[in-house]
Amino acid sequence: MTSVTSFAPDSVVLNRKLPLWYQVSQSLRASILGRRPDDPLRLPTEDDLAGHYGVSVLTMRQALKELEEEGLISRHRRRGTFIEPAALRGAPVKLLGSVDAIVAQQSGGHTAVLQHGPAALPPEVGEHFPDLVEAVAYRRLRCDETGEPTNWAENFVRPELAARIDLADLERWPMTKVLRDVLGVRISRITDTVEARLAAPETARLLQVPLLSPILHYTGVTYDESGRAVDVVRIHYRGDRFSFTVTMEAP
């Protein structure tokens, strides 16, 4: 059976001034919407979830009913409760622009490299690197001039390119600029996807925002001139600090 901690947020502080079932349903919704494609679809039992959140089984049952009515989960007698994969997200917004526009979008403020090293590829990243089992991952936090966090990013880069990257450069420039201007990678295109999400525990902690706050989730895939993906980045922007504008020009 799936454990609670492998699916639900690690910790949730409940506000006793708001209905507990509502807070629990919102927390569980954030976990469902933020789950990885390879995560299990089966939810823990009502008893396990109630124990995790520190609420009664009746409260947990009411929270699950709310999610069932929204179409996020389905409940089957004797089989359990399952996430509905087709109900996870709406269609994302895809943006097109120049490489310089991408560099400008990802620039500004102060950047700190939190972690870097070899990492297994999550399924949604691995699909862009069919010839790799792992890549080199870089986790970076960007703050504004006052030191307030504005976004955090996770890049997955081909090992042969990562071996030539100076971490000091990543504290000065976006990965796209480092790849193109420092390493000399001839970039042919970048595909961008932006989705609205709710802040999961890790994002809430890094960006110093409340759990379930709105964020903008950006995914960018950079390709070289041979059509091979060289970098996949996932950036989590604070929803109260960023907006994306798409300009459509007539031919």
Automatic annotation (TrEMBL):
One of its GO terms (molecular function) is DNA binding. InterPro entries: Bact_HTH_transcr_reg, Chorismate_lyase_/UTRA_dom_sf, Tscrpt_reg_HTH_GntR, UTRA, WH-like_DNA-bd_sf, WH_DNA-bd_sf. The keyword DNA-binding applies. Keywords: DNA-binding, Transcription, Transcription regulation. The keyword NADP does not apply. Pfam families: GntR, UTRA. CDD domains: WHTH_GntR. It comes from the Bacteria. Residues 18-86 form the HTH gntR-type domain. GO terms for biological process: negative regulation of DNA-templated transcription. This is Transcriptional regulator, GntR family.
